[in-house]
Amino acid sequence: MNVLLLGSGGREHALAWKLAQSPLMGAFFALPGNPGIASLATCLTGVPLEDHDAIVTLCLSEKIDLVVVGPEAPLVDGIADRLMSEGIAVFGPRRVAAQLEGSKLFTKELCKAHAIPTAAFGRFTGVEEARAFVQHHGAPIVLKADGLMAGKGVIVAMTLEEALAGIDEVFAMGGIGTEILIEEFLEGEEVSFFCLVDGETVLPFGSAQDHKRAFDNDEGPNTGGMGAYSPAPVFTAEMERRTLHDIVKPTARALADAASPFRGVLFAGLMITREGPKLIEYNVRFGDPECQVLMMRMEGDLLPLLAAVATGRLEDQPVPLKPDAAISVVMATRGYPGPYGKGSQIGGLEAAETIPGVKVFHAGTRREGDDILAHGGRVLTVTALGGNVAEARERAYDAIARIDWPEGFCRRDIAWRALDA
Ligand code: AMP
Ligand code: GLY
Questions:
Q1: pLDDT band at 57 (very low <50, low <70, confident <90, very high)
Q2: Ligand 1 mean position to 247 CA, how many Å?
Q3: Do 279 and 173 belong to one domain?
Q4: Of 194, 213, 251, 331, which has fewest CB within 10 angstroms of its CB?
Q5: 198 with 262, same domain?
Q6: Strand positions, DSSP E, 239-293
Q7: Last residue of one domain, picked from the residues 310, 345, 363
Q8: In this structure, what are the phi and psi dihedrals at residue 148, rounded to the nearest 5 degrees?
Q9: Cβ < 6 A, ligand 1 pocket
């Protein structure tokens, strides 16, 4: 099977690593890929992910059997619709179903219509009504701009003053004519839960927790994710059962009934509250760095599973996961998520991978001759498997100690919740 993988991050390197192990793999291409992916697939350049015509041409000339889409933006832009109209199989939902991530209002209305547990909410186009609602409900309260905001666009206001001040800010983030959501604050522990979905067949692909704040003790600004581990102890078998029954399956059914079946991976961001799991948000792709830990734990062949999702032939068999724990620690350039420099040299990558169970996935790197240079904010995800979280974590940090990159930093406390539990 000839495969084209779209994307360039740590998530895509992990997908490429797992896919490349498949005996079914034929020619393997990545667009644009990264220096880590380059050792597994042919990385193509010169075609932006926004250029759907060029991607179709590429698929036809390279006889691609399956396109695997890593990031959300091309899906929200309709890449799956375009590929499917050309008869090319694609792992990732069509535009309408991708609204689950592309529009928070779409998801909230779907939840409301199908009694899916989520935070109560109001929607507003005017500042005055929004202020009156916040005054009435008090704090803590959550303000959100609609649309694909790349992890921004959400203010969790702990006081009434913060909430009132935040209203103008979220309207501004959403742009002119935007609608904002104001939500009940959910209290509990957050979990990421992944399911392969082919219309109505829903296969759980494990849980993970990520760490969104930049610094130890969950302090500092929000980031795309500084580390993750899987499984998440708070997500018990009972929580998984309830989430499937109350949240994920009704969502898949609602979309299938509306003639826009979801095909791809559905990433449910959940709050485990005292009343049980509630949906915070959906994403229509694997998480980054959650994907890295899931790929480390997955047993067996990923490629036929993704192909089955793409062609609507997913069988109702659990995705085989190792009982081991996996952890990934992001190494980022100093300054991230604010301004940071590029071009610093990274050494010790091979030495790091000699530790048993360790894989270093590239995210924001660039190759220059024999050198690997930092080329982004999140640069590496050092990922390790172990018999339990403590062992996996020790391996990951031992690997990090072998990486020679003074301009990089990482959190030292990834998976603290699982260790304290
Ligand atoms: P989102 O972009 O919707 O994932 O929101 C970003 C982060 O804000 C989430 O990961 C949560 O930590 C927090 N958050 C979002 N909605 C709520 C809510 N209703 N209650 C509490 N925290 C929330
Ligand atoms: N790590 C969170 C995300 O990928 O959205």
A1: very high
A2: 17
A3: no
A4: 213
A5: yes
A6: 263-273, 276-283
A7: 310
A8: -80, 105
A9: 119, 142, 154, 156, 183-186, 190, 269, 280-281
Q: Which atom of ligand 1 is nearest to the CA of 186?
A: 20
pLDDT tens digits, residue range 175-194?
766 889 999 999 999 999 99
Exposed/middle/buried for residue 120 (C-beta within 10 Å: 0-12, 13-18, 19+): exposed
Give the pLDDT confidence score for residue 287 in this predicted structure. 97
pTM passes above 0.90: yes
Helix (H) or strand (E) holding 358: strand 358-362
299 Cα to the center of ligand 1, angstroms: 31
Pocket test of ligand 1: the residue of 280, 281, 417 to mutate, having most ligand atoms within 8 Å of its CB, is 280
Task: Give me the pLDDT at residue 417, please.
Answer: 83
Give distance in angstroms: CA of 288 to centre of ligand 2: 5
pLDDT tens by residue, 262-307: 999 999 999 999 999 999 999 999 999 999 999 999 999 999 999 9
Residues 238 and 268 in one domain: yes
* pLDDT value at residue 342: 97
Residues 86 and 145 in one domain: no
Nearest Cα neighbor of 284 from 263, 298, 305, 304 is: 263
Model confidence pLDDT, tens digit, residues 302-336: 999 999 999 999 998 889 999 999 999 999 999 99
Does 156 lie in the same domain as 223?
A: no
CATH code at position 281? 3.30.470.20
Centroid of ligand 1 to alpha carbon of 280 (angstroms): 6
> How far apart, in whole angstroms, are the C-alpha atoms of residue 42 and residue 62?
12
For residue 259, pLDDT beyond 90: yes
Q: Which residues of 367-381 are buried (b: 16+ CB within 10 A; e: fewer)?
A: eeeeebbbbbbbbbb
Domain that holds residue 411: 325-420
